[in-house]
Design goal:
homodimer, alpha/beta, Rossmann fold, 2 domains, 6-stranded mixed beta sheet, two-stranded antiparallel sheet, globular
Chain lengths: 267, 267
């Protein structure tokens, strides 16, 4: 007789898998946890996969091969991402968000755990098979969404700074031209990155792609491949190869409703 | 006959509850999701609670009353938190982390999604019943762990800045004396906070509590109650009422192993 009922095994397996998205757990891990045979655990995983699909709660996949096992990938079902982002766009359109100078207030959205988790998962879903080793962001506002992207990909996050900090150790500094046409400095700790690895850039906003290009040239300094650049929001006319934004923003004028829409790639 | 098997309901319920820690879901929510009777769903919740307890995967609780329902609270079992933090302390003790000037490199730990999630959950567990409305941190290094604390408490995160930014809108600025004895500025957007609410301060490190005291006086400016202050690491001799740190640090000397230990309150 099995030590635990299928009910119990399925609930526990769900918690373990969903708590560490994209991480592959071996079947043996669950065999040990449940004191059950491989065939039983394998059947559990199949039932779980079907259940998650049915309720549209994400994907449970069995990966074959030497490094094989079971993994969970959040929210990849058609329609879900778009509905989620339409909700955020509705929030963005509130006239009270327009600040003097045509700026748009959305710091609250960028640091709401539920919202940044959802956005991070949408980014991650596009790069599951891109071999991303770490996520790179530039301080400050993009950190929450970059962290959640890193979590969904099960990789670490690295934060570039505006200036060299003593507690980051030896660092490489580069100058770059920001979207506002100002020369700025970017500093990245040598300890934080590894030559020959692959990075995904995640940031909150881009106007002309200046900061993202700065991050890209920083990555070249370290011989790091860039898998792509992801932004929560970009100006409609931004033209940055290999980049994607969740929301596209038209010119913001005082007192008018904000022209913001969900990007076409979001399904 | 029920539309879904208990297996399936339990797996789906686990995903929904653990994806939104500390959020209360009504039984009706699950009745609708599963097309099942309240008694069935209630029994499901009881089985799930027992399963999570058995596998030490967190707590599932039924909350009674008008705003009642079911909620999940992660990792509160005796021993787990201490084991987790001992692992991080071991990482911290690597001699290679000591930087010139006696600084300690731990930016990698502070932005590793798995590690900050665990640490955020340990903080959150101490304040589940403190009525926290939002988490406050000061840019930059504490943002990831503050975000994960906010996620575990199911509240938003607010980030104080070193200077007033145009895209944060109208802000209050205060001056404070940092741990290094330097006068610094802290800026908090008026839009980000609400009078009469309760905040929990979360930050990466404190030497003399200067920045935390700065955040506390900032909160007073807005008439906000401070439930406490949480730090990933503090100097052994830090004396800041209402504060707790996960790790305590002795004097760091070049070339010597780092004197770092898990704080006594971590169980």
């Amino acid at each position: 007789m099995d030590k635990f009922k299928r009910n119990e095994r399925l609930a526990a397996m769900t918690q373990v898998l969903t708590a560490a998205p994209n991480k592959i757990f071996t079947l043996s891990h669950f065999c040990e946890m449940f004191g059950a045979a491989k065939s039983t655990v394998s059947e559990d995983a199949a039932i779980l996969a079907e259940t998650m699909r049915q309720f549209r709660l994400g994907t449970v996949e069995t990966v074959t091969g030497a490094a094989g096992g079971v993994r969970y990938r959040p929210m990849t079902q058609e329609g879900e991402g778009r509905r989620f982002m339409e909700g955020i766009c509705d929030m963005m359109r509130a006239p009270s968000r327009v600040l003097p100078g045509g700026y748009l207030y959305f710091s609250d959205i960028l640091s709401d755990p539920t919202l940044v988790e959802g956005m991070g998962r949408l980014f991650a879903a596009e790069y599951y098979d891109a071999g991303v080793d770490f996520v790179l962001t530039m301080e400050t506002k993009g950190i929450p969404v970059a962290l959640m992207t890193a979590e969904a990909l099960h990789v670490p996050l690295t934060i570039a700074r505006h200036s060299n900090k003593v507690y980051e150790g030896s660092a490489v500094n580069i100058n770059y031209v920001s979207g506002k046409g100002v020369i700025e400095t970017m500093s990245l700790s040598r300890r934080a990155v590894r030559e020959g690895s692959t990075a995904l850039i995640v940031d909150d906003f881009t106007r002309g792609g200046g900061t993202a290009r700065g991050m890209q040239s920083m990555l070249s300094e370290f011989n790091i491949h860039c898998a792509g650049s992801c932004f929560v929001m970009a100006m409609e006319n931004t033209n940055l190869p290999g980049s994607r934004a969740l929301m596209l923003l038209g010119e913001v004028k005082d007192g008018e409703p904000t022209q913001v829409r969900v990007a076409d790639w979001v399904k």
